[in-house]
Amino acid sequence: MGETSDRCEILPDPAALARRVAEWMTAAALAAKDKFRVSLSGGSTPKTLYQLLASDEFSARFPWQRVFWYWGDERFVPHDHPDSNYRMVREAMLTKAPVPAENIRPIPTDGSPLDAASRYERTLQEAYGGKILDPTRPLFDVTLLGLGADGHTASLLPGEPVLEERQRWVAAVSHGRPETRITMTYPVIDSSHRVAFLVTGREKAAILRTIRAGSSAAPASRVRPVGELFWFVDQAAASESSVKMSRGR
What we know:
Blueprint lengths: L5 E6 L2 H18 L4 E5 L3 H10 L2 H4 L7 E5 L1 E3 L9 H10 L9 E2 L7 H16 L13 E4 L24 E4 L7 E4 L1 H5 L3 E6 L5 H8 L15 E7 H4 L11
Parallel strand pairs: 1-10, 2-3, 2-6, 3-5, 6-9, 9-10
Antiparallel strand pairs: 4-8, 7-8
């Protein structure tokens, strides 16, 4: 895949970032004429975003009936476990907004991790209507991603074989880790009209600097969507960057 152009916006703090992304997502969803598929990220910054979307300020104008919710990755724990990304989104947004139950498509965490990954792959393929991703017809309208201080995104972790996976849409990640995770792979993450990294905190500044400078081999630096790539960054995360953080790269 060729070089992806991107846009970057710096916001004063995590709250301002969440509000900006809530407005951006709402505008994109309202502009869509059909089903609108979103791939969700875990983490504290997205949690604030989800709470905002379910708030009185946004809920009444967000087109809940035709938005479908998926998860980019999940820890292999029960859905009611404190570490579950599904539970976090459910408590922050899904139980507080008029979300149709059939529009919620969480990653299964029962059975074996490999079986759960295969089942979620089938769920995605059924939604897409095929098993081969067409660059001209992205699976997702919006994919939200976070950035770890080690450069990981979703559960695409440094040094893991999943980084080279190009056939499977969803994979289990367990090698050398205390907990097994289920993650979408690069081909599925890249199959999006809009991919947005939400990055907050000074601890992310160093890795963000290297990624934006084009000198990083971190997993997050390898995301190349067929559509647009957005970076929503707070001032703390941008604080150590010697690279001009502007719209465009």
